[in-house]
Amino acid sequence: MAGRDVRRLLGRSLQQTPEMKRNQIQRAVVGAVAAGARRVVLMRDCFRCSQSAVEGLRLHADVSVLDGPIETTAADTAAAVVRLRELGCTSLVVLGGDGTNRIVASTWRDAPIVPISTGTNNVFPELVEATSAGAAAGCVASGIVPVDEAAHPCKRIEVEFSDGASDLALIDLAVLEGDHPGSLLAFDPEQLRHLVLTRGEPAAVGTSPIGGLLEPVTRDDDCGVQVTCTAPGGGGQPLLVAISPGLYRTAYVREARRLPLGEWTQLQGPGVVAFDGDRQRQLGRRESLRARVVRDGPRVIRVAATLAAAAQRAAFSRRPPWHDNVSGGFDCC
Question: How many independent structural domains does the chain possess?
């Protein structure tokens, strides 16, 4: 459902078409090969975005698409990440929102990734030109810039339930009272009771600005934000917040505080637990969970810094002329 769910209809979100994704994939592949990547492997998808993106590309690299069945669920992403890791991939370009990147992190916790935003309420992935994103990933894959220099571990939320189950979120963990698992509707802030954030971004949309408008925290700050909310009339102070592009609603905040790295906090039911916007588990009235913010998540490749480091190494200087099918070149010239 990524890029096509009902949340885009209820707000004023950009409609991500398969053609737009195909074009982004193509630009990222070209950027990676231009930066020195010699092998590029893509995930198969039901709209053939990956296949059509590379069909006819004349690049001096081994470009292929993973084979295998497609279930059109999150399991496809997880299976692809497992295969890519087994194949020895040294950098991943992830097209998707916070939820897609969460699946990647759940499968390969410290994966070196360049996240490109295509979703609705995105905080984790960057709004970056796909060509540059691919080039940064290519610089790491080719060894021009070491991954430890190009990438930094991001924060994540570690979650433990009383029954022994565990999970994670990259941006937000929310408990929503009166909601139900699996809902794809934009969340109603009047139902929000608990919120833990790795980043409180005032300029973002979704849950992140609920913390960011009160306790701003960036990706580089070694802390998170914890927010406690109430129903209307429950004593919380009203906070006007953009919960989706072009859609403002009021949250009622009882308390907002910075949450130090590694400090556990207890969240009490009832409510539906949402991980990066995905409502996945029901929490009973007598049930609780505990959560903490840690910095051991995926290694996020900083695009601008990586390309600057490549420039310092003259990685793109004194290179032979570039040819591809757009410029009229062929494999032989």
Answer: 2
Residue 123 sits in a domain whose CATH number is 3.40.50
Q: Which of 184, 160, 155, 183 is nearest to 171 (CA)?
A: 155
Angstrom distances, CA of residue 98 to CA of 72, 75, 79, 105, 117: 17, 16, 18, 10, 8
| Domain enclosing residue 175, as ranges | 156-294
Token reading at 291? 């959560």
Neighbours of 292 (CB within 10 A): 18
CA distances from 230 to 166, 186, 234, 320 (A): 26, 18, 5, 62
130 domain residue, yes or no: yes
Are 240 and 251 found together in one domain? yes
Task: Say if strands 166-169 and 112-116 run parallel, antiparallel, or are unpaired.
Answer: unpaired
Does any domain span residue 317?
no
Q: Is residue 319 part of a domain?
A: no
Question: Do 193 and 91 share a structural domain?
Answer: no
Query: What are the tens digits of pLDDT across the range 145-176?
Result: 999 999 999 999 999 999 999 999 999 999 99
**214/239 Cα distance (integer angstroms):** 9
What does the pLDDT look like over 255-310, one tens digit per residue? 999 999 999 999 999 999 999 999 999 999 999 999 999 999 999 999 999 999 99
Distance of CA 162 to the CA centre of its chain: 27
| CA separation, residue 156 to residues 109, 164, 177, 260, 265 (Å) | 10, 19, 23, 13, 14
Within a 10 A sphere around the Cβ of 172, how many other Cβ atoms? 29
In the block, residue with structure tokens 């994939």: 25
In a domain, 181, yes or no: yes
Residues 324 and 333: their CA atoms lie apart, in Å, by 10
Model confidence at 20, pLDDT cuts 50, 70, 90, reads very high
Decide: pTM greater than 0.85: yes
In terms of domains, do 51 and 166 share one?
no
101 and 183 assigned to the same domain: no
Indicate if 161 and 267 belong to the same structural domain. yes
Q: Are 214 and 256 in contact (CB under 8 A)?
A: yes
